[in-house]
Amino acid sequence: MAHVLSPNVLIRKLQNISDLTQSDIAILEGIPLSKRECRANEDIVREGERPTHSFVVLEGLVGSTKLTGDGKRQITSFFVPGDIPDLHGMHLSVLDCTFSSLARASLGFMRHDAMRAICDRHASIAAIFWRSTLIDAAIYREWVTNVGRRDAYTRMAHILCELIVRLHSMGVIKDHVANLPVTQAALADALGLSTVHVNRVLQELRRNGLIFTEGTRFHAVDWAGLVRAGDFDATYLHQRTAITF
Predict the structure, then answer these.
(1) Does 1 score more than 70 pLDDT?
(2) What is the pLDDT of residues 44-62, one digit of tens each?
(3) Residue 134 CA: distances (Å) to CA of 95, 127, 144, 206
(4) pTM score
(5) Cα–Cα distance between 23 and 124 in angstroms, integer?
(6) Residue 242 confidence (pLDDT)
(7) ∠ CA(150), CA(153), CA(154), 5° rounding?
(8) Which phi and psi (to 5°) does residue 69 adopt?
(9) Which long-range contacts (CB under 8 A, 24 or more apart) does 209-215 make?
(10) Helix (H) or strand (E) holding 137
């Protein structure tokens, strides 16, 4: 069943990265979408598919993934509420990666033909979507640097800083405390580490007084220390308002 997009996380996300006029907001709110609930670890769209929709994450956590020939998984980005992970699929005939829910997720699917028609009529909306995909590309570049040139301890601190900033901008985090239902296996696949190594690094971050975890509850106890440990600079997220804690 199709619904009309009401004021929601998509509007907030785009306001974080672009100047939206009231006209822009009204147009975005008018985009019809179909809602879908996903279990954890469920493929949403798969590599090789020819999608007719793009989706926005309404709740939960989604990852873009690639598999090697021998079945090893690399997570190439995390997507939080407000993100449109496969927006580029509107212009590519076939997907070159798989998008999977990493936790229970609520998604809203938007038809490509409707989105293209809106972009054709409204240059400002096309520019907003273009900016969003450029920022996704900036995040990919930072992840390549993280996995390729930082040690395991710094990698982990960096990815935690990124998640905190992105979730904070969406109002999901307060006082450095969040529910992060991401498994150690997913962190391992995102950071190019084994799950055993992930566990050791998380323990080291705890021992150093930077983080506290209890189940899926995550607390950045020493935010400044975590930023230093992660060699983290949020510039690549291109958010309009700097995050201050």
Answers:
(1) no
(2) 999 999 999 999 999 999 9
(3) 17, 10, 15, 34
(4) 0.94
(5) 10
(6) 66
(7) 45
(8) -60, -30
(9) 210/157, 211/160
(10) helix 123-149
Token digits of residue 119:
């972009």
pLDDT of residue 5: 45
Tokens of 15: 């306001």
The domains found in the chain, sorted by start residue, are 2-143 (2.60.120.10), 150-237 (1.10.10.10)
**55 vs 44: CA distance, rounded Å:** 9
Average pLDDT, the chain: 93
CB 79 within 8 A of CB 62: yes
Overall residue count recorded for the chain in this entry? 245
pLDDT band at 2; cut points 50, 70, 90? very low
Q: What is the dihedral of CA 12, 163, 134, 150, to 10 degrees?
A: 170
Residue among 213, 232, 211 at smallest CA distance from 154? 232
In angstroms, rounded to a whole number, what is the distance separating the alpha carbons of residues 157 and 206?
A: 11
* Helices 9-17 and 22-29: angle between axes, nearest 10 degrees: 140
98-101 sheet: strands from edge to edge: 43-45, 98-101, 62-67, 73-79
Q: Quick check: 136 and 77 in contact, CB under 8 A?
A: yes
Q: Is 36 in a helix, a strand, or coil?
A: strand
